[in-house]
Structures are given as C-alpha cells and as structure tokens.
Amino acid sequence: MVGDxxxxxxxxxxxxxxxxxxGTAGHCSxxxxxxxxxxxGKGKIAKNVADERIGEVAYAVLKDPKDFALIRLDPGxxxxxxxxYFGGPTxxxxxxxxxxxxxHWYGNGIGFGNASVVDQPTLPARTAIARDLMNPDVExxxxxxIFGDSGSAVIGDDGRAIGVLVAIxxxxxxxxxxxxxxxxxxxxxxxxGIKLKLQKGALESD
Length: 206
Fold this sequence. Notes:
Layout: E1 12-15, E2 20-24, E3 34-37, E4 45-47, E5 53-63, E6 66-73, E7 101-106, E8 116-117, E9 120-121, E10 125-130, E11 138-142, E12 153-156, E13 161-168, E14 176-180, H1 181-192, E15 196-198
C-alpha cells in the first residue's frame, strides 16, 4: 500500500548510498503525470499487506513510456529478492529480440489472486506471451492481469528481469503492458544521484 493505492512490489535493489530499494509502478504513487524525488522523511509511506510500514517512496515517475517508483526500505525490514513461485531474477534482460517471449509475474491483485475475471478463476502466478521484445521502453503481451497486479516484476523463461507490469486490458489483445526495466532504473539513478544494483534471487529448481 502506498497512500490509498494497493499495488505489487517488484525487484529489490541495493543503492550506492547504502539503502535498499524495492520497486513498484509509478502510478501507484502519482495521481497525475509527473516525476518526483522525495527527500528522506518526505515520501509517501509504504506498507505491506499486514498494514505494517516498510518504508517510504523515494522516487516516482509517470511519463509515457515511464511508469516506475522506488520505495526506500526502512532499516531492519526483511526483504527477499526471490520472486514468489517462479524464482529469480537471475539478472537483467536488456536485449532487443524479434522472437516471441514467454513472460511470468506474480501479482497481488484483488483478493490476492482469488478473484474471478470473466467467470474464470485467477491465480497469483501468471504467464503471458509477447510477440517480440523489440521495443527498448515498453512491450505489450497477451495475457490476463487484474487490478492490484500493477508493479509486478516481469521475468522471462530464463529468470532474467524484463520489466514491470503497468497496465491491463481485460478484453484487449494484447492485454497487458510492461515497461522495460533498464531505462526505468537508469532514469531513477540519474534523479536520485546513486547507482542501483539488482539483487538476484534463486530459481525454483535451485
């Protein structure tokens, strides 16, 4: 929870400033288009599903095609880099490929995945397919997501981080929009004046 907005967290980073950061979607923090850096103590409070404070928003952007935010975790807050169900990330995929790509994410949508979409039960662990990965900023994929999945960490079959789920269209084909991770992180680094290192998680089979 960030303010009154409920979204899913994605990737865990360590900053060159000694802080830990965890990502989500920018629109989960910003009500209108914009970009903002919050000084410590000034960002919106972020809480977990148990309504416990985990930190505060340090950076957020909502400017097409960017839709990304970073939460500065409080000292002592436990956080794992491993993705639920799928495991990973094993690294970052910044490649431009003309081949179809299978994408995976674990969402925290309405009812924590127990809601139904068009009379079909949904699951927190989801998979979609992208026609290609040729756009360095944003990709569309065919699949189903539900409200609250925004911010989900999207990885490929090899476990590498591809991007962040930021938009859904329940009756559209393709049905989900993903912003690629590399340009989001690069911009966040520029705005925060730090370097960010993606923390890796284990694959399920490890």
